[in-house]
Amino acid sequence: MNRRAFISDITLALLAAPLAAGAQPAGKIPQIGYLSGFSPEYDNAWFAAFRQGLQDIGYVEGKTILIEERHVSTGRDEKLPELAAQLVRLKVDLLVVAGTPAAHAAKALTSVIPIVMTNAADPVGTGLVASLARPGGNITGLSDFNTGVVAKRLELLKEVIPSAIRVAALLNPANPTNRPQITLTQTAASALGVTILSFEAERANEITRAFVTMKRERSMGLIVIGDPALGAHRTLILELAAKNRLPAVYSQSQWVSAGGLMSFGTHFADLYRRAATYVDRILKGAKPSDLPVEQPTKFELVINLKTANALGLTIPPSVLGRADEIIQ
Question: Which fold has domain 29-145+268-298?
Fold first, then answer.
């Protein structure tokens, strides 16, 4: 074989060789599809943390990375499959998904495009991944699920209202992560001498009816299980809790910023920031199946003293001393 023929054969072989999984061709700007089960207003701060995470790594949006966003404006899940399909049709290089319903919508549409979860609750229990250590398939990322967090919300409510023996729990039955959280809450309730009254709701009229029943059944406190659809009705839920003078604990701090009594849960901005590292590793050639799913490591307790005063409550110093943020 002469030298020219040898070089030609090597060149053809290199052109024909497949790229490593997730690796980007030289000069191609990777495009990320962001699929959120939350409204743009609800997860705006979290999404900003994700973008900041990319920037901290060295990505420049519009120059070295592109992001195409899709949000569910109402918090309802029905539109997620179509929004996911739009991103798949754009042939994005990677999907970043916010919330368990969004993760399931993306998984149902593609087994090829890598998927990074920002905050999926119980990804093993809901069938998103095979295990946290070895997710398998094309999905990895972060879980916001921690069994201790779920129990702690009830414990905090009991500390603030020691006399509470009947506590309502509001959940969305369409969200596969809500029922396991109710089960964990009921287990914690047994040890605290509390009876949990579960109320299922997704739409505004269902939420209103649930509060009527809570009052009739003499609920002394409320736990709102984290869910995009319930989050979309945040204003209504906060108004009804205030109207019925029902002390409530929530899963995310923006409820407290908007007037809720207190929240305890995962620091979501931290999860979204960490999700950027998954995006970077996958774009550089790592396989999602080889990247373990990480759990939350940072949590926050936020208390609204103005709301506590309106409800005639005195927050114990032992609880105030543990707060990460106190809203006056």
Answer: Rossmann fold (3.40.50)
pLDDT at 125: 87
Alpha carbons within 13 angstroms on the beta-carbon side of residue 293 total 27
Read off the pLDDT band of 42 (50, 70, 90). Answer: confident
Overall pTM surpassing 0.85 (yes/no): no
Indicate the length of the chain as a whole number. 328
- Say how far apart CA 302 and CA 317 lie, in whole Å: 14
pLDDT score for 31: 98
Q: Show me where the domains of the chain are located.
A: 29-145+268-298, 147-265+300-327
**Same fold across 29-145+268-298 and 147-265+300-327:** yes
Strands (E), 286-327: 299-304, 325-327
pLDDT confidence of residue 63:
96
Please report the pLDDT score of residue 73 as a whole number. 75
Chain CA centroid to CA 165, Å: 30
CATH architecture classification, 147-265+300-327: 3-Layer(aba) Sandwich (3.40)
Alpha helix positions (H), 217-314: 228-232, 234-243, 253-257, 268-283, 305-310
Q: What average pLDDT does this structure show over 16-30?
A: 56
Residue with tokens 């970043």: 96
Residue type, 262: M
**Cα–Cα distance, 167 to 154 (Å, whole number):** 9
- What six digits make up the tokens of 252? 């995310």
- Compute the Cα dihedral for 125, 126, 130, 134 and give only its sign: negative
